[in-house]
Each structure stands twice: as structure tokens, then as C-alpha cells.
From TrEMBL:
<keyword id="KW-0448">Lipopolysaccharide biosynthesis</keyword>
<dbReference type="InterPro" id="IPR036412">
    <property type="entry name" value="HAD-like_sf"/>
</dbReference>
<comment type="similarity">
    <text>Belongs to the KdsC family.</text>
</comment>
<dbReference type="InterPro" id="IPR050793">
    <property type="entry name" value="CMP-NeuNAc_synthase"/>
</dbReference>
<comment type="function">
    <text>Catalyzes the hydrolysis of 3-deoxy-D-manno-octulosonate 8-phosphate (KDO 8-P) to 3-deoxy-D-manno-octulosonate (KDO) and inorganic phosphate.</text>
</comment>
<dbReference type="Pfam" id="PF08282">
    <property type="entry name" value="Hydrolase_3"/>
</dbReference>
<keyword id="KW-0479">Metal-binding</keyword>
<protein>
    <recommendedName>
        <fullName>3-deoxy-D-manno-octulosonate 8-phosphate phosphatase KdsC</fullName>
        <ecNumber>3.1.3.45</ecNumber>
    </recommendedName>
</protein>
<dbReference type="InterPro" id="IPR023214">
    <property type="entry name" value="HAD_sf"/>
</dbReference>
<keyword id="KW-0460">Magnesium</keyword>
<keyword id="KW-0378">Hydrolase</keyword>
<comment type="subunit">
    <text>Homotetramer.</text>
</comment>
<dbReference type="InterPro" id="IPR010023">
    <property type="entry name" value="KdsC_fam"/>
</dbReference>
Length: 188
């Protein structure tokens, strides 16, 4: 686990797929043909926590949906790329648009995906994560498999790990408890 925390401590940008990661992967249509998705509130708190400490977030998804834009805005996601089947090309294009002064390369990214279109992007980044119900080939190429499935707090697990890697987890938790914030020195 310490190796994962150390690796997560290098992350400057968390990139997430939507279907199967931020949602449970089901596509539900109502009687009028309107698509709906369910998102985890816990994931939202996790994504917002990264922003508090200057860690950027992005969504890259193969489908296009207004509800993804809405959820991304609610969570404060910095970049949203929709309708892109080739996730590696989308990731490289995204990285080329980020301010060069931030010095973010693929090696500074974490990528969460669950299916075959995510693999190339996951193989390019410094930290690759997936969910337990991901395709076996994705699991085999991931640094970490969360305990929770997509849409049920899996993203939150990665956000918490990134905060631990950066030494901010206890400070973040202290915002929600009556406990005093513990510094990284207190934890060693």
C-alpha cells in the first residue's frame, strides 16, 4: 500500500471515464427516450477535495451527455472531453491544452477506466486505477483496483489515496471532524 500512496503522491491530474467509473455503467432510458445516469455523492466530495489542494481533474468519455456536463460542473471538474472513442488521443490533446507552466505530463496523471477503450490511456499515465467489475484486461494493466464498483464511491477511494500521497488526507478529514488536523510529521 505504501508504494501506491507514493505513486498517488505524484498525481497532478486525475482523469476519469464516466460509464463504469463515475456511474455504474448502466444506461437507462425513460419512456421518452431520455438517458439517465446515477452518480455517487461520495465521488463528488472526493473530486472536490482534490481541488482544495490544487490537484486538477478531468473527464474523458466516449459518449456525449448533457448530464455529464452538469455533474462535472457540480463537482468542479476542470476539463471535460466527451464523444471521444480514442481515449489516448483525447488524453494527449487534453494535456496539450493545459498551461505548460503547470508542468503536467502523462506521467503526472492518474487515469480511472474500466473497459478496453481506456487501456492505452491507462498504460500512458503514471498511475492507472480501475474498479472490480472492469474488463479483465483492464484489471491486469492497473496499478490499483478499488474495493467499490463504479458509481458507488470508487472514485472517492482514488481521491483519498491521492490526498494521502500528497500528505493532505488528515487535514482534509479535519474539515469534517472535531479532531485537530494532523500533519504529515504526526503520521510518521
Amino acid at each position: 500500500m505504501q508504494d501506491l500512496i507514493k505513486k498517488a503522491g505524484q498525481v497532478k491530474l486525475l482523469v476519469m471515464d464516466v460509464d463504469g467509473i463515475l456511474s455504474n455503467g448502466q444506461i437507462i432510458y425513460d419512456a421518452n427516450g431520455i438517458e439517465t445516469k446515477a452518480f455517487s455523492v461520495q465521488d463528488g466530495v472526493g473530486v472536490k477535495s482534490l481541488a482544495r489542494y490544487g490537484i486538477l481533474t478531468a473527464i474523458i468519455t466516449g459518449r456525449s451527455s448533457a448530464m455529464v456536463d452538469k455533474r462535472a460542473a457540480e463537482m468542479g471538474v476542470n476539463y471535460v472531453v466527451q464523444g471521444r472513442d480514442d481515449k489516448l488521443i483525447a488524453l494527449n490533446e487534453l494535456l496539450s491544452t493545459i498551461d505548460p507552466a503547470l508542468g503536467i505530463t502523462a506521467a503526472d496523471c492518474a487515469y480511472m477506466g474500466d473497459d478496453l477503450p481506456d487501456i492505452k490511456a491507462m498504460q500512458t499515465v503514471g498511475f492507472a486505477a480501475t474498479v472490480p467489475n472492469a474488463h479483465a484486461e483492464v484489471i491486469n494493466r492497473s496499478d490499483m483496483v478499488t474495493t467499490r464498483a463504479g458509481g458507488t464511491g470508487a472514485v472517492r477511494e482514488i481521491c483519498d489515496l491521492i490526498l494521502k500521497g500528497h500528505g493532505h488526507y488528515q487535514d482534509f478529514i479535519a474539515h469534517y471532524t472535531l479532531d485537530e488536523a494532523k500533519t504529515q510529521d504526526d503520521l510518521s
